[in-house]
Each structure stands twice: as C-alpha cells, then as structure tokens.
Specification:
Layout: E1 6-11, H1 15-18, E2 26-31, H2 35-41, E3 55-61, E4 70-77, E5 83-90, H3 91-107, E6 115-121, E7 124-131, E8 135-137
Parallel strand pairs: 2-6, 3-8
Antiparallel strand pairs: 1-2, 3-4, 4-5, 6-7
InterPro entries: DUF5793 (IPR043811)
Length: 156
C-alpha cells in the first residue's frame, strides 16, 4: 500500500480558531488502492474487524516543529504493533486537529471519544472508530506529551 493511495479529510475543527461552539472532530481516510490488503490489516486473527481499542493513531514529525514540517500519520494495530496505514500530512494541520479534539474533550463525557475516524475503501465506509488518544512523536522518536492527546488517567 502506498501513501499516495490515502486521502485524509477533516471536519469540525474550524471552531478552535474562531472560539466557536465545540464540535466533535472527525477525520475520514479514503483508500483508493487494492482493498484486500487494507481489509486484512484492519481484521484481527478471529476474522472480525479490529475494535477502536485495538488501534492507535500517531503523528511522527519529519523535522523540527514550526518549519512547515510534514509528518507521517499512522494507524497501528495495538496488539501486534504492525502499521495498518500511513500517510503524509502537514504537521500544523494535524496539531490543529488534536487541539480541536482536546477542546471538544473538555466538554464531553469521560466515556465518549474525543474524535472520530472513518476509513473508507473507494468511497464506501469500512470501519468507524471513536478515539481518545493521538500520540505525537518528534523526528527522533521521542513522545511530545504537550502536543499529544492523552486522556487523563492514562499511563504511557
């Protein structure tokens, strides 16, 4: 699977810049490549689609923050550690998304996800997750806690 086969679209984040009414941020990742491999990566050994708790989302910066830095957004299988998908994105855009999720979480119930991820295959929804964590790593692999979305009470 190539990164170019993925397109990412976000909604409900503009309110952060305008101090508007918080809305749950949402990201849609559309895959236009061969669907068989992605379906396999999103499916556990039991044949069921992975649950939200079995996946992790992260951003790996490709350079120092603040220099029009790009990053690699990844979704991984929490059990095996294998990458499910990766795509390149502007780091500032991803950090704005994380700020929106953090702001939304201030008003949301503790058991509710902070953002939603939908993965589509050629435009058809395949899986949707409510997530509460989004980790950010610098270009050397160190966790940037201040930029990450980590729910209270979670130990890393």
């Amino acid at each position: 699977m190539r990164r170019e086969h993925f397109t990412l679209d976000v909604t409900n984040i503009d309110w952060v810049e305008t101090d508007g009414e918080p809305a749950k941020p949402s990201v849609s990742i559309d895959f236009t490549g061969p669907a068989t491999m992605l379906r396999e990566r999103l499916t556990g050994p039991d044949g069921d689609v992975l649950e939200a708790s079995e996946t992790d989302a992260a951003l790996r910066l490709q350079g120092p923050l603040g220099d029009d830095t790009t990053g690699v957004v990844s979704v991984t299988n929490r059990i095996t550690g294998e990458f499910i998908l990766e795509l390149n994105e502007d780091a500032d855009d991803v950090l704005q998304f994380i700020r929106a999720a953090r702001g939304y979480g201030e008003d949301a119930a503790d058991d509710e996800g902070r953002y939603e991820v939908t993965i589509t295959l050629d435009g058809d929804p395949f899986v949707s997750y409510d997530k509460g964590t989004f980790l950010v790593y610098d270009d050397e692999g160190s966790l940037l806690r201040q930029h990450s979305l980590i729910p209270s009470g979670v130990e890393l």
